[in-house]
Design goal:
29% of the residues lie in helices and 26% in strands. It is an alpha+beta fold and 442 residues long. It folds into two domains: 7-25 and 238-440, UDP-n-acetylglucosamine1-carboxyvinyl-transferase, Chain (Alpha-beta prism), CATH 3.65.10.10; 27-236, UDP-n-acetylglucosamine1-carboxyvinyl-transferase, Chain (Alpha-beta prism), CATH 3.65.10. It binds shikimate-3-phosphate.
Length: 442
């Protein structure tokens, strides 16, 4: 069979971004809406659902476990919850989760509490990512999960094992690990208590509360007691701040830009990108702050502004963990040096984002010095050239918006995975002023 040709972007240099936009729904919230909606009693109606490959992988997984889900249609889903014990084994026992780390890690906890066995697999990037961070604490709770000798997927989860609550201090700041343990905790006897070293995104906690599940939060500790119930509800998913980040950076670096981003989720555990860009001199205004179904939402106005390098405060790293590819582009266009440390997690994302971004920025003529846990970037004039995204959606979009400040054309390889988090990115960006073209290589 002829291999499917790979998608590339070609970005003509210059231009600016103007207009109004609403980026697709938040990926983290979309995953959780399907998971908790499926386990609830009664119907859950979701609007603003992200129709990207990652959240669709979660949706298909629950359909394969017997949950009836209508949609998505224009971001709307209707989930007929089966209750805490209503999931069924998938026909062949296997769930393919594609590129989605969130699906795999959260499902690992949730499936450890079911009566049936499951095998979780994914694409080559997902099968390289560390899973021991969830399987080890889950095994302390009584779960039985097999990984490869390297601690990676495929994962075989043995069902029907009684789980018991534990107190677990997270060795890495990870919302995925925290969420996985809390989901297993719903099925465990007694209390499961997770202690975070620093705050990470708290969508699981907020959504559990929204579904009526009692949860205790005291400082860095989050606890649930197993055996409760979830009650179906309506969920309005805000626009994803992680997808908005490309436009916040793009409009900041391209003279003449003025953008209005609507209905963006600005949960304080996710808004580090706004704080960091403002520290760099960005002109971002938060308008109409409101609460939508337990999540803070606002409109954002961003206008071009001269940026300068900063030392990124360590406490902001987990609050902006997915936005560093875009922030690195801002740093490349800023006056002076930007330093990032304490971000070793970037090396185990969909790609090694420190190395892949440093390699690409160097191709574009920028002095980017990678370190084990971060990078030093000296701002300069972006030239042009061909860069590889290594199949990482956020790297591909970061280099695309870099075209606004480049002197020559930028070609970006392996862009198919942009569909995991931001379907329609190129068309939307083009409508706002980015000179981007998609093409399939031979
Ligand atoms: C996510 C948590 C983060 C983030 C990922 C989504 C989530 O991962 O990078 O894109 O939805 O819980 P970690 O918790 O591993 O940092």
């Amino acid at each position: 069979m002829k291999p499917i040709a790979e998608l590339r972007y070609r970005v003509h240099p210059g231009g600016c971004l103007q207009g109004k936009l609403r980026v697709p729904g938040d990926k983290s919230i979309s995953h959780r809406a399907v998971m908790l909606g499926s386990l609830a009693t009664g119907v859950t109606r979701v609007s603003g659902f992200l129709e990207g490959e990652d959240s669709l992988a979660t949706l298909h997984a629950f359909r394969r476990m017997g949950v009836s889900i209508q949609g998505p249609e224009a971001g709307r889903l209707e989930i007929a919850g089966v209750g805490m014990h209503g999931l069924e084994a998938p026909a062949d026992g296997c769930l393919d989760l594609g590129n989605s780390g969130t699906s795999m890690r959260l499902l690992c906890g949730l499936l450890a509490g079911q009566r049936f066995d499951t095998r979780l697999s994914g694409d080559s990037s997902l099968c390289k990512r560390p899973m021991g961070r969830v399987t080890l604490p889950l095994s302390q709770m009584g779960a039985f999960i097999e990984t490869t000798p390297e601690g990676t997927a495929p994962l075989c989860i043995r069902g029907g094992r009684p789980l018991h609550g534990i107190r677990y201090e997270l060795p890495v700041a990870s919302a995925q690990v925290k969420s996985s343990l809390l989901l297993a905790g719903l099925y465990a006897q007694g209390e499961t208590c997770v202690v975070e070293p620093v705050p990470t995104r708290d969508h699981t906690e907020r959504m559990l509360e929204g579904f009526g599940y009692p949860l205790r939060r005291a400082g860095a500790k989050i606890s649930v007691v197993g055996g409760g119930e979830l009650t179906g509800r309506s969920i309005d998913v805000p626009a994803d701040i992680s997808s908005s980040a490309f436009f916040l950076v793009g409009a900041s670096i391209a003279r003449g830009s003025d953008l209005y981003l609507e209905h963006v989720g600005i949960n304080p555990t996710r808004d580090g990108v706004i704080t960091i860009l403002r520290l760099m001199g960005a002109d971002i205004t938060v308008l109409n702050p409101r609460s939508v179904g337990g999540e803070p939402v606002a409109d954002l106005r961003v206008r071009a502004a001269p940026l300068h390098g900063v030392v990124i405060p360590a406490d902001l790293v987990p609050l902006a963990i997915d936005e560093f590819p875009a922030i690195f582009v801002a740093a490349a266009c800023a006056k002076g040096e930007t330093q990032l440390t304490g971000a070793e997690e970037l090396r185990v994302k969909e790609s090694d984002r420190i190395q892949v971004m440093a390699d690409g920025l160097r191709v574009l003529g920028i002095d980017a010095r990678p370190a084990p846990d971060g990078m030093i970037i000296r701002g300069g004039r972006l030239s042009g050239g061909r860069v590889s995204s290594q199949g990482d959606h956020r790297v591909a979009m970061a280099f695309a918006i870099a075209g606004l400040a480049a002197a020559e054309e930028i070609e970006i390889e392996e862009c198919d995975n942009v569909n995991t988090s931001f379907p329609g990115f190129a068309t939307l960006a083009q409508g706002l002023g980015l000179a981007i073209r998609e093409w399939r290589s031979e």
